[in-house]
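PT: before anyone asks, these are the final sequences, not the draft ones from last week. 390 residues across everything. Please model them as a single complex and drop the result in this thread when it's through.
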Amino acid sequence: MSGRRYEVRLSGSGGQGIIMAAILLAEGAAVYGGKQVAQTQSYGPEARGGASKAEVVISNEPIDYPKALVPDLLLAMNQASCDLYSKDIKREGIIIIDSTNVGQPPPGRTIAIPFTGIARREIGKEFAANMVALGAVSCLCPEVTEGAVEAALMARVPPGTRTLNLKAFKTGVKEARKIDTAKLRHRYHGEEAEV
Amino acid sequence: MSGRRYEVRLSGSGGQGIIMAAILLAEGAAVYGGKQVAQTQSYGPEARGGASKAEVVISNEPIDYPKALVPDLLLAMNQASCDLYSKDIKREGIIIIDSTNVGQPPPGRTIAIPFTGIARREIGKEFAANMVALGAVSCLCPEVTEGAVEAALMARVPPGTRTLNLKAFKTGVKEARKIDTAKLRHRYHGEEAEV
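LR: through. Structure below.
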């Protein structure tokens, strides 16, 4: 009975700030975007392998099952999570990898952005990689606007770290805007264009 | 196919730090307690009435459905969330209210602790009410230990606010320990003892 669902899975190792990114994406879509949203983290044995995940399900209608079943968008911030989760994704789905940490991306369909390298070089803080990635995800996810997620970020992040987090977020948006989504669409239909 | 589930619902208004408390409870139970845990927030129209919730489902086995169906434990940090959620709880469940904000508690079965007042008077920061409440919940929830949740708190909270948050947490534990749980058990069987 649920309407069209858009499922996002953010994944990485513990400590990479995956949950905070998921909460901001969820609050952007819901509080500032008017969508119905469910945000979930599950803790189980897979986390011991260095792959933890946080999920955001977005819909225009009430959400019956709150976890991602076949994600439309996967963010993988490390190799373990990329290996574990990239096979679950929808055929036309988007996989975004942190190419600083993922040396062996899955074949095809992958957008590679060095989030951790960008955070280190351009923000001066490696731990801001999650906010760079959130900016890119906000740009590439059709169910939220960058402005809505930015509003969620400004409302939730403590004043003392707001400037740094906002800069990281905007850098991620800018990187994602460089991606040729027309080319990407082609690739989803089975061609081999590289992004 | 899931084993025994223990369902916790934390509720209040936006800005009361419900989600952070839920994440710490979940990480205490999972990362430091070895349980399987699902942690969820749903954003929908009910939030506009001042009642938002975050849920933690704890089990010894993989969790099939990650949301609370009939909570074992409800924390209500404001009147709107108490009114909305107190009717859903399990018959033998525990309802814990922030009596600073909830002037009209549900009949029977309720543990009243003035979390916000305690945070204001003993911690000097009203926004620490969520950590006072988390201490009490950790003490009263049979599926986690206070030590495990404290470890999660120490690992996740930024160093600058760790002392304050830890003090708030421990104050909540201390308040909850004053509660006569034997009396409470009686009340759950339909008697009218007050706590």
